[in-house]
Amino acid sequence: MPPSAAITHTVSARIIRLILGLASRAGVAPEALLAHEGLRPEMLEGPDVRVPLEAEGRLWEEAARLTGDDCFGLHAAELLQPGAFDVLDYSVRSSPTLGEAVQRLSRYNRLLHDVAEIRLEVRGDEARVRHRFPTDPRGAVRQAAEFTVASWVIVGRQASGQALPLRSVGFQHPEPASTQEHRRLFGCPVRFGQDCNELVLERRMLDVPFQKADPGLCAVLDRHAEELLARLPRAEPFDEALRRAICEELKGGTPNIRTVAARLRISTRTLQRRLGEEGSSFQELVDTLRRELALRHLADERTAIAEVAFLLGFSEPRAFHRAFKRWTGQTPGEYRQHAAH
Prior knowledge:
Helix content is 52%, strand content 10%. By secondary structure, the chain is of the alpha+beta class. It has 2 domains: 73-231, no CATH class; 236-339, Homeodomain-like (Arc Repressor Mutant, subunit A), CATH 1.10.10. A hairpin with a 2-residue loop joins strand 4 (117-123) and strand 5 (126-132). The two termini are 32 Å apart.
């Protein structure tokens, strides 16, 4: 059975690099944090690298566990510095007011995250900045959610130079054992088990000016952000991404589950689990894909059978002959001869 066509949602590797950097300050080596996901630090380099959303969620929670910091997400937000998230960050900080900064965050957040929806809702004298996953009612994992909402507050305070008093903060996840750090950071009532993650403030706070507002720079950054959004890859169904990764590996020989998982930026264990949930296995999928490609190549008589074997990653034609006969009951030559009549 082929794997399901569930969409593979991703986040920018900038988020992962931030998690690694902050965990490293607490004495946790990046390699130790990434090991469970089958990732290495060098795989995360580059401005356009993205990582599966599932892996990001697990890394937030693993960072909290390995550092022994139950409020890792909150504390990570407090250590944010300008430029941490490149164009999105600079665009937000260059906005004239807090309200316009939130609008830019909402518009350009996909540069960091495929799924998260950030909305500004204004009713009467109250403004709400809301965060949710439209594709998953469970929302973000606890540490990611707390980092997200806390980062809005920290960046707003840094950019405005003001305390930005809040009316309340809400989170989707259950209440943790201690909320002392939440109350300290937000300085307002904090509720858990809500329908989304949000912060609530007085409407007039949206007009608070930012200290380094620069309309000219904002316009330039907006154009750049729009260009980057247009270049983002579409969210790809998992089965398509997996098949593409296997096809790439076939060019160098027999595909290996570890290298395919690395291409997908997930752990070998995660790939095995997802295939197992669909009643499939890695070798079964490789065989299915090789068979499909073999039939396609053999239909073109200009392609020699030995070349077909090479294209499918077989070390020698005899291995291809044996595999093809197992799949079809015919040798490649017999199949091509019958297909021609």
